[in-house]
Design goal:
- The chain has 46 residues and is mainly alpha-helical.
- It contains 3 helices and no strands.
- The chain is globular and about 35 Å long.
- The chain starts with 8 loop residues before the first helix and ends with a helix.
Length: 46
């Protein structure tokens, strides 16, 4: 079973800012940081 990872608030903010700025598409960010799209959407909503 995979161990749950913890992400810092600064990391989450950085990823969401990159998404909002249009520098990268959601799929690119997910591959780059090895996260699932639903997690990225959740961070954006927060």
């Amino acid at each position: 079973m995979r161990q749950q990872r913890m992400f810092s608030i600064e990391f989450k903010r950085q990823v969401v800012e990159e998404l909002i700025s249009g520098m990268s598409r959601p799929a690119q960010l997910c591959r780059k940081h090895d996260i699932v799209p639903s997690l990225l959407a959740h961070w954006k909503k927060q």
